[in-house]
Amino acid sequence: MKRNFFVLFLLALSASFLYGQADNLVGIYLTAEKTSQVRVFKATNDKYYGKVEWLKEEPDKLDVNNPDEKLRNKKVWGLIILKDFSYNESKNRWEGGTIYDPDNGKTYDAFIWFDEDNKTLHLKGYVLGMKFVGRETIWIREAELRQ
After folding, report:
1. How far apart (Å, rounded) are the C-alpha atoms in residues 16 and 131?
2. Per-residue confidence (pLDDT) for residue 20, from 0 to 100
3. Distance (Å) of CA 73 to CA 44, 56, 60, 93, 122
4. What is the Rg, in whole angstroms, of the alpha carbon atoms belonging to the chain?
5. CA–CA gap between residue 19 and residue 33 (Å, rounded)
6. 79 falls within a domain
7. Whole domain around residue 32: which residue ranges?
8. Residue 85, SS3?
9. What confidence score (pLDDT) does residue 2 get?
10. CA within 13 Å, CB half, 105
11. 71 within domain boundaries
């Protein structure tokens, strides 16, 4: 009986640790160009999303490059550009999601991981399932939203 309890305790402990690792992605990030901030959050479906929460210039900038003409009058500020990421424990990264680039109107499959410091976030976008071909960008975690 004691052995079963100990095993259950270890399983619960490891599950809470992994849950915490996955949620480490939640936060505010300054993009590589330092022109915007994205807030990453966990939705009710247990997947991670990222929303533009600050633009350095042009707060009224529109998503003019969106391939859907009906969405081109939508502001970039407030746009969800990261969608549907799940944590992959064995690879220590978030994957299965997409990243949208409002500068060119394209959406890419993507995966995300941290440097050891848990402040430097790497995002790699790719197309046609070819993860070895694509573009990588780096975002830096910030403590709060800019004004």
Report:
1. 30
2. 56
3. 28, 19, 10, 34, 30
4. 18
5. 31
6. yes
7. 25-142
8. strand
9. 54
10. 13
11. yes
- On whether residue 1 sits in a domain, the answer given is no
User: What Å distances lie between residue 124 and 24, 45, 100, 137, CA to CA?
Assistant: 18, 23, 12, 6
Amino acid at 71: L
pTM: 0.83
Asked if the structure places residue 29 within a domain, the reply is yes
The answer to whether the CB of 46 falls within 8 A of the CB of 31 is no
Q: What is the mean pLDDT of each run of 10 residues along the chain (147 residues)?
A: 46 41 91 96 97 94 96 97 96 96 96 88 89 89 90
Closest by CA position to 38, among listed 86, 95, 102, 125: 102
Report the pLDDT value the prediction gives residue 14, as an integer from 0 to 100: 41
Residue 10: its pLDDT value, please? 35
Q: What are the tokens at 128?
A: 């046609």
CATH code for the domain of 87: 2.40.128.520
* Number of domains the chain is built from: 1
